[in-house]
Amino acid sequence: MDFNEKQIQILKVAEKLFAEIGFDGTSVRHIAKEADVNVAMISYYFGSKEKLLEALLLYRVADFKMELETVMVQNLPHVEKLDALVSLMVNRIHRNRRTHKIINYEYTNTCRQIDFDAYVEQKRDSLGIIEAFVKDGQNKGVFKTDVHTKLLGATVIGTYFQVYNNKPFYKKLLELDSDEAFENYMLTSLTQHIQQTIKSLLLNEK
Amino acid sequence: MDFNEKQIQILKVAEKLFAEIGFDGTSVRHIAKEADVNVAMISYYFGSKEKLLEALLLYRVADFKMELETVMVQNLPHVEKLDALVSLMVNRIHRNRRTHKIINYEYTNTCRQIDFDAYVEQKRDSLGIIEAFVKDGQNKGVFKTDVHTKLLGATVIGTYFQVYNNKPFYKKLLELDSDEAFENYMLTSLTQHIQQTIKSLLLNEK
Amino acid sequence: MDFNEKQIQILKVAEKLFAEIGFDGTSVRHIAKEADVNVAMISYYFGSKEKLLEALLLYRVADFKMELETVMVQNLPHVEKLDALVSLMVNRIHRNRRTHKIINYEYTNTCRQIDFDAYVEQKRDSLGIIEAFVKDGQNKGVFKTDVHTKLLGATVIGTYFQVYNNKPFYKKLLELDSDEAFENYMLTSLTQHIQQTIKSLLLNEK
Amino acid sequence: MDFNEKQIQILKVAEKLFAEIGFDGTSVRHIAKEADVNVAMISYYFGSKEKLLEALLLYRVADFKMELETVMVQNLPHVEKLDALVSLMVNRIHRNRRTHKIINYEYTNTCRQIDFDAYVEQKRDSLGIIEAFVKDGQNKGVFKTDVHTKLLGATVIGTYFQVYNNKPFYKKLLELDSDEAFENYMLTSLTQHIQQTIKSLLLNEK
DNA sequence: GATGAATGAGTATTCATTCAT
DNA sequence: GATGAATGAATACTCATTCAT
Question: Does residue A18 belong to the interface with chain B, where contact is any CB pair within 8 Å?
Answer without folding.
Answer: no
